[in-house]
Amino acid sequence: ADFFAAPKPLAGKKVVVTAGPTRERIDPVRFLTNFSSGKMGYAMAEAAAQMGAETILISGPVSLPVPNGVTRISVESAADMLESVKLHFDDADMVIKTAAVADYRPIAVHPQKMKKQEGGSTIELERTVDILHYLGGQKTHQLLIGFAAETNDVAKYAKDKLQRKNADYIIANDVSEAQAGFESDTNRVTVYGKGGFEQSFEMMPKAELARQLLAMIHEQEERHDR
Ligand code: CTP
Ligand code: CA
Predict the structure, then answer these.
(1) Among 39, 81, 165, 208, which one is least packed by beta carbons within 10 Å?
(2) ipTM beyond 0.95?
(3) Which residues, other chains included, contact 39 with Cβ-Cβ below 8 Å and sequence gap of 6+?
(4) pLDDT above 70 covers what percent of the chain?
(5) Which parts of this chain are annotated as the region Phosphopantothenate--cysteine ligase (predicted)?
């Protein structure tokens, strides 16, 4: 045994993390997506594994290596991500929804490449399933942690998501802020929890922030003996 090994407070727990953007196909060569880099989600998965959890990382398309000790499942669309999360939900202890899931997808996926026409064009969209909201309705013992990326009224929108999705915690960040956005290696967040819990973290590297977030959540849950 390594004398200097880090404590493993999540040993015996199964943690499911979703990360990255989703891709919603328009035709065989085009899709809708967003600027998520996956960095925060991968950092959360790495921190969970370091803390001893069996860690499943359900990832949209990103160009990041699989963190040590983590099992990655690659998915493309919001529908794929939902299907994969469902498979791992029942025996999960904690689900961390870091992914920037597309809210809309094209109603029809064109089987062939769309050819340009004279004049403009419209793509008709429909809503995807809100995975976190779905899990909030299904959860039995699982701790549900969502993220909220906002450009304005962060506290108001984050608290609203906590309620609406029946999450245990929402980790909110202001993506309009320099060095706290999708591509950044650093982030600054405020965590909102049930019963008015609120805690802000300093700007720091995503890897360190992920460790502090998981340690804080673990400590809160131990305190409330759940
Ligand atoms: N989320 C999800 N499935 C979706 C959309 C969002 O599971 N189809 C999850 C995200 O992974 C995140 C949380 O919900 O953990 C909040 O995502 P966000 O985009 O900030 O909120 P929305 O509810 O989609 O609201 P809006 O985009 O309008 O702010
Ligand atoms: Ca959204």
Answers:
(1) 208
(2) yes
(3) 64, 183, 184, 185, 206
(4) 97
(5) 15-226
Q: Coil, helix or strand for 209?
A: helix
Q: Taken in order 49, 51, 54, 56, is the CA torsion positive or negative?
A: negative
Torsion sign over Cα 29, 30, 36, 41: negative
Please enumerate in sequence order all residues whose Cβ is within 8 A of that of 9, keeping only pairs 6 or more positions apart, or say none.
51, 52, 215, 218
Residue ranges per structural domain of the chain: 14-103+125-223
Q: Which two tokens stand for residue 2?
A: 């390594």
Nearest to 110 by CA among 190, 188, 26, 193: 26
Pocket test residue of 101, 159, 189 for ligand 1, highest count of atoms within 8 A of CB: 101
Going by the DSSP 8-state scheme, the letter that residue 51 receives in this structure is: T
Cβ neighbourhood burial of 188 (10 Å; 0-12, 13-18, 19+) = middle
Helices and strands counted in the chain (H then E): 5, 14
What pLDDT score does 67 carry?
A: 98
Q: Taking every pair of C-alpha atoms in the chain, what is the biggest distance, in angstroms?
A: 70
Domain 14-103+125-223 belongs to what topology?
Rossmann fold (3.40.50)
pLDDT digits (tens, 9 = 90+) for 32-91: 999 999 999 999 999 999 999 999 999 999 999 999 999 999 999 999 999 999 999 999
How high is the mean pLDDT of the chain? 95
Atom of ligand 1 nearest to the CA of 99: 11
